[in-house]
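Lecture 7 notes. Example A: sequence first, then its structure tokens.
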Amino acid sequence: MAKPDGDNTGGRALAEPAPHLAALSEKARDYARNARSENTQRAYDADWRQFASWLRRQGLDPLPPDPQTVGLYLAACVEGGPGRPPLSVSSLERRLSGICWRYRQLGRLLDTGDPHIATVLAGIRRAHGRPPVQKEAIFADELLAMLGVLDNDLRGLRDKAILAMGFAGGLRRSEIVGLDCGPEQTDDGTGWIEIVGADQNGGGLLLTLNGKTGWREVEIGRGSSPLTCPVAMLETWLNLGRITRGPVFRPLARKNGGVSAERLSDKHVARLVQKCALAAGLRGDLPEGERRRAFSGHSLRAGLASSAQIEEGHVQRHLGHASAEMTRRYQRKRDRFKVNLTKAAGL
């Protein structure tokens, strides 16, 4: 039966989508890209590249997803090879998450419950599982020592504000550099600041953050001295850097030392913590290589959780943790032997 006029598309390209649908499609892709943080997206992209490279070397095709092939890949990763150190169990699990995520983007599902994956992964966890390696916590006196190794030039004042705010706010490094001077000022911002004037409680800094557990507010009160106050350090940086809009923390130009309009990378926070921890002599009992690996941006976050002598619920809300158990992982040695069940049982 012949098709009616206008319904015959045989041999012809389909019509271009309407302009408003094309715009919606681009917007949908933007939202999809923002579904995960930039760091997670980079990690997942790297995970897929590693997997795809291994498949090519084995002469295998990534499609359709094959649980047996993925199980072999997991075994190869944990065993390592020439120029390829074995992955830890946590890195292996993250790599599997990256592979699953990419398959979902391709409209294919990888069944991680298949025995070729689940049983292999369970065996790897049993054979190679280790307690998580935690970064050293930086306590208040150690933070002050780190602040003391920084100069009082514009770069040093910026870095002092980063360290003090990261500690007092219990912030992730991405949350520190993602701050803007106000709401809806940039496309890549993940939160903003508001300096609250003095009231009966002294005022301070209010942060509105969009983190892993959604939106939350973080209060950073003023310190006992301008030399140790995170809010005062931030105000000094903003005033001298002439920053009133856009990213709070920015790089400095190498030529003239001026403040860039761009956002500072979160890697700067990790490098800053490591550099200042070494310069301040923290954990001097360790070899330099181990000392460098012992500290990261999370050291500030763990330091606050371990130092704050307040109810655990307040610390949990401040850090934005979904559970108290996660908060306790950050509290380095704080409550050990506080409760002695041996004596309580009568021994």
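Example B, a different protein, same format:
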Amino acid sequence: MHVARLVLHDFRSYTEAEIDLEPGPIAFIGANGQGKTNLVEAIDYVSRLDSHRVAGDAPLVRVGADQAVVRVEVRRADRTALLEVEITPGRANRARVNGSALPRTRDVVGILRTVMFSPDDLALVKGDPSDRRHFLDALLTLRTPRLGGVKADYDRVLKQRNALLKSARGRHGSVDLSTLDIWDDKLATLGAEIVAQRMNLLMDLGVHLASAYLEVAAEAPTDRRDVRATYKASVELPDDAVGDPASVRTALLTGIEQRRRDELERGISLVGPHRDEAVLEIGDLPAKGYASHGESWSLALALRLASFALLREEGDDPVLILDDVFAELDQGRREQLAALVGDAEQVLVTAAVADDVPKALLGRRFRVEGGRVHSDGA
């Protein structure tokens, strides 16, 4: 699988842009602020309907425009699909495949699969639990697109349940809580599937993560080469919870009942996948708070390389995107990373200067200046 063409209308800094791409390594070279990251962000957005840079869609639309349009032509073997997403802040976005409108915008997710690595990925190790939950859910959705709908339904139920709990805060006797049991059941049912699938994902990802970290951190001391990712739920789960939503649902309902008083006092849902954590460890210690800067970088990169390996194992190569990462690495690690990803079908690289990019990944080059893209050939 590779991206053969990218077309932008009023996306970020681009009024218009059309770029023909091909398999293999492709480098977008340009000084900071010239628009190179906007190009790979657009491709990644069509894959996941999510940006690695911002939480909402409004910044994706060029200042002064009402709507942005991203079109990506994807080729897999002898088949071609034209994916189009219209981004309209304040209104529902729309998506098309080969000119036909999709019933739901999220149905476009997973047709193109991408794995993005950027400097912001340090948050996967050093950031809040929400950063790691987001990582898991994004990968889950690429792996099994229908889970994006499950997560969206869960978020709506959580919002409604929190609103009810907030209205009852300090007013237990004067607020009708008869519907709370209904929201409990919905939260537990949807949440159970998310938790079970996250646990299953971490199990499948674990082997690839351990292998990737050994390759990335080959020079680490022997006692700092083992990495693990384990799931820490907001409730005690049975041993058979992995991949079994029914047992997780029972545990969630039990946890909700036990925390009822606390939830009513605080006015917020305290049980469910929105409170869970993926704990990363290096050696015998948690990575967060104990890993050095170099170890954190290596673990973040290993998480992305493991994601790539898992998706490749289950289907076509995802498009690998390395956004402005080489400036953070010394020459040895640059060459090591290039060797690890060199056999990917398509690798998109952004960098401020060409000298930062290993020769093996320069491939075809585009120069990005002032929101314009110029081909420099190979």
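Note on Example B: The radius of gyration is 22 Å. The chain has ten helices and 15 strands.
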